[in-house]
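Deliverable D4.2, example record:
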Amino acid sequence: MLLARLGSSLILILHALVISEICQAENLDQLLSAAREHDNQYRATKYQYQASLARVDQAKAAFFPIFSLNANSNLNSQDIEYVGYDAPERSQQFDTYGYSLQLNQPIFRFQNLVLFDQAEAQVAQAQAQMEQAELDLVTRLAQAFYEALQAKAAVSTAKDDYELAQTQSKEAGIKYQHESAALNEKLEADSRIQMTIAQELEASAELDNKLFTLHQITGLNLSAENFSDEGIALPYDLKPLSFWLQLAETQSPNVLFQEAMRKVAAHEIDKAKSGHYPTMDLVASYGTSKQGPSASLSTATMVNSATIGLQVAVPIYSGGAVNAKIDETALLLQKADEELEAARKQAKIQVFQAYKGIVSNQAQLQAYIQASYAYQQSFKASTQGYLAGTKTPSEVFKSRQQLSIAQRDGIRAKTNILLNYIKLRAAIGDLNFGTKLRN
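Output generated by the structure prediction step:
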C-alpha cells in the first residue's frame, strides 16, 4: 500500500532522470529494488514502520474483554492437636484443587481512548519517517550516480590531455633529433605528460570512490562505461521560490513527522490526566474448588461459585505523582512545538538552498556552453597556428586544456541542476513528480 505507492512513484522519478542507464542493472526496477534490499539505513526504517503498525492493534486490545483461567492442585498434610478438649491427636493427608474462569470487560478507562488516538499518531509518524527514508534513498542514489558521472568526465578530460601531451612530446622529440627544436621544448612536453598522468590517477581514484559508494547503496558491481549525460531532461519553467517555500511548511516529511510527534505529546498530557479519572469494569467469574477436610469437619467439601458485578475505582490521592506527570508532559508538548517550528524552518532552508542551486547551476551551464564553443574555436586556431609556426606547443596544450575543463564543468553544472531539483522536490515531500520533469 504505502510502500507500493512510494515504490512506483520513485521509479517514475529515476526513469525521468535516466538513471536506468547505469551499466549492469538491466532495468531501473532492479536498481531500486537492489537498493531497498541492500541499504541498511532504508531497511532499518522499513522495519520500524512495520513494527509501528502493530501499535494500533495493541491499543484496540484494551477495549476487548480479558479472560483468564486459574487452576490449582495441592497435596496437604496436617497434624491436628486439640487444646482444651479431650480428643486424641490425629493426622491426615488430603488433596485440594480448584479452577476459576474470570472475565474483565473495561467499560470506562479514559487512558484507553487516549492510547488509541496516540497509536494512530505514532503510525502517522512512522509513515512520515518511511516517506523520508524513500526520498533519502533516491537522493543518495542520484547523488552517487551524478558524482560518478562527474568523476567520469574528469577522467575523460585527463585522458584527452594525456593523448595531446604524448603527441606533442613525440613531435618535440623528432624536432630535437633534427635540431629544429630546443631541448627545453622537449622537456616541457615530457613534463606535461607526467602532469596529465597525475591528473588521470586522481580522477580515476575519485571515480572508483563514487562507484564504491553506489555499490554500498545497491550491492551491485557497477561500471562507468555506460554512464552518460545524454538524454538527461533538465527541468525548466521553474515555479517561484515562494511556491516551494509554502509547500515545504506543510508537505515536508520531516514536518509531518514533527506534527505527528506533537500529537503524541498532546496525548501524553491527556494520558497523564487520566490518573485523576475513575475506572469502571464489568467483572465476572465462575469456579469450582475442593476444600478440606478441616479440624472441625472430617469430610471434604466441593464449592461451586459464580459472581458478576461492576468494579469502580476512584483515585483520591497519589502523593502528587499525577500532577507532576501532567506538568512534565506539558513541558514536553512545548518542546514538540519548538521542534515542529524548527522542522518547518529547516525544510524552508533546504528548499531555498536547492532552488538557488538550480538557478546558479543553470546560469553556470549556459556560461560553460558558451565557453566551450569559444575554447573550441581557440583550440582550432591554436592548432592551425602551430602548423603555421606561429603558436607554440604550450599554447596549443593550454587551449585544449581550457576546452576540456569547460566541457567537464558543463557536465558538472548539468548534473548539479538535476541533483538540486531532486533535493528541492524531496524537501517538499513530493514523490509524484517524475513525469513532470519534461512538462
